[in-house]
Design a protein that fits this description.
about 110 residues; alpha+beta; Aspartate Aminotransferase, domain 1; six-stranded antiparallel beta sheet; about 35% helix; globular; YjbR-like_sf; MmcQ/YjbR family DNA-binding protein; YjbR/MT2646/Rv2570-like
Length: about 110
């Protein structure tokens, strides 16, 4: 099953207080004003928030799926190849986790 940028968009926008904008030449998604997903590379990948230690482990474990863009190496972000995702459930888990990292505490507590 191929996961697409439209699948990313649909799931991201289903999460509370999420907005889509266009910046840096790509679609970006914010929760309560904080960035949590971008769709670079013509929407064939996504960048999501991920603690650096976890990110490094993901890249080592599945380099065909995850990688670190050079300009994001010092930041808690990881890139994900959409075609390498197993299914929409995996996509949803990754996007939702990134959303949780960016969402304000009050919004998380209301869930």
């Amino acid at each position: 099953m191929n996961v697409t940028g439209d699948d990313v968009r649909a799931h991201a926008l289903s999460l509370p207080q999420t907005t889509e904008q266009f910046a840096w030449g790509m679609p970006i998604f914010r929760v309560a004003g904080k960035l949590f997903v971008t769709l670079p590379e013509d929407e064939t990948s996504m960048a999501v928030r991920c603690p650096i230690l976890d990110r490094d482990e993901l890249v080592l474990a599945e380099p065909g799926k995850f990688w670190i863009a050079s300009h994001e190496s010092g930041n808690p972000w990881v890139r994900v190849r959409l075609a390498a995702l197993d299914d929409r459930e995996e996509l949803a888990a990754i996007v939702t986790d990134s959303w949780r990292q960016a969402a304000p505490r009050a919004l998380l507590d209301a869930q």
